[in-house]
Design brief:
- The complex is a heterodimer of chains A (312) and B (301).
- Chain A is built from 15 helices and 2 strands.
- Chain A has 312 residues and is mainly alpha-helical.
- In chain A, a hairpin with a 7-residue loop joins β1 and β2.
- In chain A, α8 packs across α13 and α12 packs antiparallel against α15.
- The longest helix of chain A is centred in the first third of the chain and has 32 residues.
- Chain A is flat and about 90 Å long.
- Chain B has 301 residues and is an all-alpha fold.
- Chain B has a domain of 207 residues: Orthogonal Bundle (MetI-like fold).
- The chains are: A mainly alpha (312), B mainly alpha (301).
- At the A-B interface, α1, α2, α4, α5 and α6 of A face α2, α5, α6, α7 and α8 of B.
Chain lengths: 312, 301
């Protein structure tokens, strides 16, 4: 046994030495990577680590962080009913807008794929523009204004469906659905571009081969030829969709107010903002961030394993 | 059929362009019809808020409050935009200063991001060294985390560096945006290694290879990095990091006008257009290059 361990460690040591030697030879590479790596670690990795650290402490910026174990997590789950509303809303928004936005991105990319080039360019701009339009979504507060002059109310009243204006952004029943519509409107983002580009790159010969082998309609072609070819883009698009679906807070804050009536439009990120930047309970806010991290990573793993089955 | 072939045939006078392109064998006319109708409808719905916003920015005041409201402006004017400049001209910090702040942040942040991310992407895609796979995996995972999640520790870090209330608080973190490195690396994978080796045999060192061979060959990817970076920085309100009025960004100042109530409705609509115009124009100009880059954006497992 002792002999075994000795050999094992010698092997490890040898591997390490080889690694160091390789690293020495690749000095140039590290120099090239260094500027990016340093900045990336400082502004993207370190925050995650500090978040995890602070989530186990009580920290209000003025005093030194005080270690309190998992108290933050316990309070989050057991005592904070607003947080539970937040989780419920975030999951609801993620479940509706995530997959729907993803499918919309792919569907539109696929439909415009066979159009002539210049029409396709216009279509890409039209579909992609909302997602880069900054806060243009505040225009929806005009459409859904709470009085009889709002377009949605006026239309519904003219048609005789309702006889009093609906307070779209104050009535909790309507808040989330409207926010979802707005988020869907903005959901054709980077993933969509990736799909458009990926579809252009699918080898034409495969389609020809498909006709020979008896692919009957466009849907079969989609499932058996296009989708399997698009797997890498589909994975990339999924990552983008998850980011968007779980990170919702701008739209709900701008449209429904902050805080919204009865906290009905509260999401996890809004809650994080509330504790981080209004109440300065950094430890508690970090715990919320960690919960969100975990949700995103789990969701990503689940989707990756699902996408592996596409086209089989 | 390539263009060259077509040309050859037409010169011989044999080739005639067909009026209706031969259809793929597995497409039905009705399927096409309904799908394209659906596509048109969706495009209209998607474009509607944009069209509405542009029109209300062009409406004179009396049309803005007309009832029943019209979607299209009857007598389009640029009054709202000139009013906007008048209002901005009266502010304590001048309009040009806000504009300078945003342009400075956008230009420096984008340029730095382009250089730093390309350098990293170059070695990650073209050389084998211990740790490159791991590093790239971490970058891919970090693409998932929106900025909000790390906002608090980020603030603490910027504070520790003493950058609060300076431009650097916005510019430097933008250098390290994971999306840029990811797209650049995926695109550089497509460059043939022989190109680099040939240059090396000719006696060029890594830096020369990078500046002389690699960078000129990945121009489409530049445009993509630029567009993503410009989008992020131009729309950055920077409200968490910058407190001094003279260092606030244009978007922040403009959005305060939006909050000005009923009397500022027209100007508010003009603000929306001013804010979105830069990202959208950059995108339209670089669309084909962006798509060329995105073709290599896939994630392999």
């Amino acid at each position: 046994m002792k002999e075994y361990f000795r050999k094992y460690f010698m092997l490890k040591k040898h591997n390490f030495k080889v690694g160091v030697k390789k690293a020495k030879r690749a000095k140039m590479c590290y120099l090239f990577l260094a500027p990016y790596a340093i900045l990336f670690i400082t502004f993207f990795v370190l925050p995650v680590i500090t978040s995890i650290f602070f989530s186990f402490t009580y920290y209000n910026i003025l005093e030194k962080p005080r270690f309190i174990g998992i108290q933050n997590y316990l309070s989050l789950i057991l005592e904070d009913d607003v947080f539970l509303t937040g989780i419920k809303n975030t999951l609801l928004i993620a479940i509706v807008t995530g997959p729907l936005g993803y499918i919309m991105s792919f569907l539109f990319a696929w439909l415009i794929n066979e159009l002539p080039r210049w029409i396709r360019t216009i279509a890409v701009v039209v579909f992609y523009a909302p997602s880069i339009a900054g806060n243009l979504y505040v225009i929806f507060s005009v459409f859904f204004r709470g009085d009889a002059y709002g377009y949605a109310n006026a239309l519904l009243m003219d048609l005789g469906i309702i006889n009093a204006p609906i307070l779209w952004f104050i009535n909790p029943t309507y808040m989330l659905p409207i926010c979802m519509v707005v988020i869907l409107w903005m959901s054709l983002g980077t993933g969509f571009l990736s799909f458009v580009a990926g579809l252009q790159g699918v080898d034409r010969a495969q389609f020809e081969a498909g006709y020979m082998d008896g692919v009957k309609n466009r849907w079969q072609e989609l499932w058996y030829i296009t989708l399997p070819n698009m797997k890498p883009m589909l994975l990339f698009g999924a990552v983008m969709s998850i980011t968007q679906a779980f990170g919702v807070c701008d739209v709900t804050m701008a449209l429904c107010g902050y805080p919204s009536t009865d906290y009905a439009a509260r999401t996890i990120v809004t809650h994080l903002y509330d504790y981080g930047f209004s109440r300065f309970e950094m430890g508690y806010a970090s715990a919320i961030a960690v919960v969100l991290f975990l949700m995103m990573i789990l969701c990503n793993k689940a989707i990756q394993s699902m996408l592996r089955r596409v086209g089989t | 059929m390539s263009k060259k072939q077509k040309k050859e045939i037409s010169e011989n006078g044999v080739y005639h362009k067909k009026l209706i392109k031969r259809r793929k064998p597995n497409r039905s006319i009705w399927g096409d019809f309904f799908l394209y109708m659906f596509l048109m409808l969706m495009a209209l719905i998607m474009a509607f808020p944009m069209i509405y916003a542009i029109n209300s920015a062009l409406k004179p005041l009396d049309e803005l409050f007309m009832f029943p409201p019209k979607i299209l402006a009857k007598h389009p004017t640029l009054d709202n935009f000139s009013d906007l400049f008048v209002t901005m001209g009266k502010s304590w910090v001048t309009f040009s200063r806000y504009l300078f702040n945003t342009v400075f942040i956008t230009v420096v942040g984008t340029a730095g991001h382009l250089i730093v991310a390309s350098m990293g992407a170059f070695v990650l895609s073209k050389y084998e060294f211990p740790g490159n796979q791991t590093f790239f995996k971490i970058v891919t995972v970090s693409m998932m985390f929106t900025g909000y999640v790390t906002a608090i520790p980020n603030y603490l870090i910027i504070n520790a560096l003493g950058w609060v209330d300076t431009y650097w608080a916005i510019i430097i973190p933008a250098f390290a945006s994971p999306m840029g490195l990811f797209l650049m690396k995926q695109f550089m994978e497509g460059l043939p290694m022989s190109l680099i080796e040939a240059a090396k045999i000719d006696g060029a060192n890594e830096w020369k290879v990078f500046m002389g061979i690699v960078m000129p060959n990945v121009k489409p990817a530049w445009m993509t990095l630029i567009i993503f970076s410009v989008q992020g920085l131009w729309n950055n309100r920077a409200a968490t990091f910058i407190y001094s009025e003279e260092r606030k960004t244009l978007v922040f100042a403009l959005q305060q006008i939006q909050g000005g109530g009923i009397a500022r409705t027209g100007q508010g609509a003009a603000v929306l257009i001013v804010v979105i115009i830069v990202p959208i124009i950059t995108f339209i100009l670089s669309e084909s290059q962006v798509l060329e880059t995105m073709a290599s954006s896939g994630l392999k497992d």
